[in-house]
Amino acid sequence: MDKTNYTSRKRVGDKIYHTSAWRKLRQSYYGSQYGMCERCDAPGDIVHHKIHITKENVNDPSVTLNADNLELLCHSCHNKEHKQVYSPIRNELKFDEFGNLVKKT
Asked: Is pLDDT above 60 for 10?
């Protein structure tokens, strides 16, 4: 996926992210995952739509407001999902249970 495609898709979904329905769903989903990334168990901070929001489905609540379409990801896993090459954290590092950056064992 190229950056232009991602940027235009992000703009399409911007409205949904400012609704109270999304905020409530995001908070509830985050809590249901205990704040942990579903892929690597690092602290999660992005509630990601598995089916990406597009101009064709932005008004479809079965896509935008469906907990079954969500996944809690850390920044690194979210970047990998969107094929971003650069990660601010090196592969040999991770966060410990206190949020400190430590070497992976």
From this structure: no
